[in-house]
């Protein structure tokens, strides 16, 4: 099936005795780049990358590392994000401790991948992600659920939606009950758009979501923004050139999750987070935006002024986390009202919100689109800066202990239209046991080996024989996959 996924090259001569090889250093991937000023000039390419002799077709980003404190970063073993190279996108897994490539799949030829992460789907840890095309700012594709051997468990499509479109790229959430939640963007005609400066009879692209049992294909719940929100309560106004043909995208929902039987959603264009009744779909409360129900009790009144935000999640203890884009610019060097990852304290009785913590990018970034916020076990926070191709990790104090770029930080929109904006990033544990063999290549007196997404391999042995049909000799070279970098 899929080609080699983990990369390990072994440079010392094959004719060296075994023992020194066991303890000597092994060479693996190209070294990480540390001069990000040089990197950002673009001399290494718009997408600095490396390829592998033992895994033809696989491309890995050459990361620029602004900060990487090996001792302070969270020890969760793998880093997940979506990667794209020359029009082919893949879920990507790196080792957290040395940032080397573990898994990529360029063979499937996915146009856009987003949200790659491990979720427990119906009792089994699975690699889940969106794959499909991007139409303007929403997706038309499939929700993928892969098993430990990277085989397809489920491919989730909308059930009887009012559109031919597939699922959207923004969310793919596995519930505790074994179901999954997907978003679907529906085009609706005949909508009165005078409240946003549009025609009396116009077209919208509405946000909807469905909860589905992936094993039976049963639709368990469905919700449409147009049934509960007035189009005029958002921040976007009609733009003839942008909206007349394709429709006005007023709501733009970008996250949905299920919490205690209810649904938590985030609308970018309404700049609000809302809790919906899990049975009726009715709005229980709204936080932020024009319809806000809460009082901001933070010292500087900065708990509720989030805007165009992403990935709202409720945690135990009534805390809510999100990525606050805050502005419609891809700015660098921002000092006020920049993008941030935020943690809020809710009081649903008093209807108050306080700011617990906020995390800014060390380079003062404003991210126009995308982004994520993950709370790690150590208390650290992992942040994807979305349309700025960078991922950071912060201590509770806010200090960045990791700051890496997937490609030059130019402030352009390349990261959204064909470049590397990590829509979301996650650090997670994973046990990958691929069905395919490792890749191997011999060049001169060097043997190169790739690991194929296998996470449990500790040692390997290279066998040799003089006779192509004969039995292999005893291993004469051994390597430890952890010996590199
Ligand atoms: C990094 O690259 C820049 C631009 O090429 C160069 O001016 C600078 O000297 C380099 N810094 C280091 C530490 O090598
Ligand atoms: C990929 O890497 C090669 C070799 O370093 C470089 O020449 C090329 O420009 C890179 N591709 C992109 C799209 O940046
Ligand atoms: C559209 O909405 C506006 C403002 O609410 C209202 O005045 C107008 O009559 C509506 N048009 C139609 C065709 O319903
Ligand atoms: C920061 O954002 C607030 C609203 O969220 C706005 O009132 C204020 O003017 C902004 N400050 C600057 C310097 O842009």
From TrEMBL:
It comes from the Eukaryota. Coiled coil: none annotated. Residues 1-28 form the signal peptide. The keyword Signal applies. InterPro entries: Arylsulfate_ST, ASST-like, Quinoprotein_ADH-like_sf. Keywords: Signal. Pfam families: Arylsulfotran_2. The keyword Signal applies. This is ASST-domain-containing protein. It comes from Zalerion maritima.
